[in-house]
Give the backbone structure.
Amino acid sequence: MAPEPNYTDMLSVAVAEARKGLAEGGIPIGAAIFDAAGKLIGSGHNRRVQDGDPATHGETDAFRNAGRQRSYRQLILVTTLAPCWYCSGLVRQFGFGTVVLGESRNFQGGVDWLRSLGVKVIDLDSPECVSLLSEYITAHPEIWNEDIGEE
């Protein structure tokens, strides 16, 4: 049996993406996709503000940057925040077997639904991820509410 990947190291890639998005004036949510051995396949960050594209969440940006894959079942999606329903649908549609969360305090999204489908969800409850997004939400509540579909 293969050793479990170092999820904390994987999360650091997603956090770097989140910080890149924040530096660009966007929402600090980053994501990365790894194979079962821990090799980076693709990464990205929320680009909704920068690109004016409501579909470019961190997970979808990483997904696009990873390119076509024969199968997603053995891949690991790492994201700084629990995926919203839209991104949870992407996990379900393509059959990711594992999702690693930086945190789910600021937003729960579809985490319970993914678990009910048998997706392995690991919540690292990273204080860095919690503060990065909570500070953004406090400073920009209108952009955050738009991102999660709230009025």
The beta strands are 30-34, 40-45, 76-79, 98-101, 120-123. Residues 7-23 form the longest helix (17 residues). The first strand starts at residue 30 and ends at 34.
